[in-house]
Fold:
Amino acid sequence: MSRSERCKGAELRDDLAENGLGADHPVRRVLGGARTVSAPATAPVPRLALTREEAAASCGMSLDSFERHVQPSLRLVRLGRMRLVPLGELERWLAEHAERTLDGAAL
Structure:
């Protein structure tokens, strides 16, 4: 790198810093003309559906048990070969199949 290129790089850094585009800005120029872009921090997006593997894990069971005992009574979203389980369906199934283990009078 020639001396004039180094001076231009230093001037560029100074110009960027003066305009609020310092090292902590999402778009940053790097010497040599390349640019790096970092993604801004965003809030997580709430999930509306789970894969069958995720649904099985959220119920604390294996995928095989989920497919055998739970999946037949759920409505699934089918997209090609992918199957998604809506959270509402999973919650409905859990509520319908939940049982009390203690008599209310014994409490």
Notes: The chain has a mean pLDDT of 78. The helical segments are 3-18, 52-59, 63-70, 87-97. Residues 49-98 form one domain.
